[in-house]
Amino acid sequence: MKYLGVLALSLVVASCSPNNPNDTEQSVQGAAVTGDFNTNHMANMGFKVESATPSEIAGLYQVLTDQGLVYASADGQFIVSGRIFDITGEAPVNVSDEILNAMRISDLANYADTVIEFKADNEQHVIHVFTDSTCGYCRQLHERMDGYLDKGITVRYLAWPRSGMQGRAAMELQSVWCAEDPKAALTAVKNDQALPPANCENPVAEHLALGHKFGVRGTPAIVLESGRMLPGYLPPEPLLAKIENDQ
């Protein structure tokens, strides 16, 4: 299995880091050509190319993959990890972030039926949170759930076991998603209460892969309604301020 370290970002935030960041299941896809873009070399590196379109820079393609956004030459022989900024206006515009935000919004819609939702009675905002049952900062966020709900913030959880699908968190999270009452089960495991092992069709592995695609590097990772992703834990009041400034 090949994994490109060039996609990783070093962040100092209130989040729990992966115990094994390379533990994600990826398969090499067959060679293919999408329009003028040849995916052969990227397939050999373990990328699954979802779309390839010309970027704002002539000769450079923006390529959305199962590992996120990269830029590549039209022949697929060279890739660039980074961000493109449009500097023609009064302030620079991060074009790459706009693409990633739109991708996250679109992808999250496909997982709407697989989240564990804590819904605010007076819902004003909706956030998606990638969580790990063994992460201390995730537990802090969950302990303040009433604070988020009181501020009109609905929380939708996705699973992101930092140690991969063979670790303790993955087993716990699968039991949570398979429980008769997933909300109560998630609260229980975050309070160190044991759950009976459960085996059912569950989305934990898919959530883990989705998080890698989104650029999750630790938990909690919060996705706002705009698609912007905030790494790390934020208490209710600062989070609300971030949300309102993001409008």
3D structure, described in words:
The structure is a single chain. The chain has helices at residues 40-44, 95-109, 136-143, 145-150, 168-178, 182-189, 204-214, 236-245; strands at 33-34, 37-38, 49-54, 60-65, 68-73, 79-80, 85-86, 93-94, 116-118, 125-131, 153-159, 221-223, 229-231. It starts with 32 loop residues before the first strand and ends with a helix. It is α+β, with helices and mostly antiparallel strands and 247 residues long. A hairpin with a 6-residue loop joins strand 7 (85-86) and strand 8 (93-94).
Can you describe this structure in just a few lines?
The chain is an alpha+beta fold and 247 residues long. It has helices spanning 40-44, 95-109, 136-143, 145-150, 168-178, 182-189, 204-214, 236-245; strands spanning 33-34, 37-38, 49-54, 60-65, 68-73, 79-80, 85-86, 93-94, 116-118, 125-131, 153-159, 221-223, 229-231.
State the total count of DSSP E strands. Answer: 13
User: Strand count, sense and closure of the main sheet?
Assistant: 5 strands, mixed
> Oligomerization state of this entry?
single chain
Taking all residues together, what is the mean pLDDT? Answer: 88
End-to-end C-alpha gap = 40 Å
Number of helices: 8
What is the helix/strand order?
Answer: EEHEEEEEEHEEHHEHHHEEH
Return residue spans where pLDDT drops below 50 for at least 5 consecutive residues.
1-12, 21-33
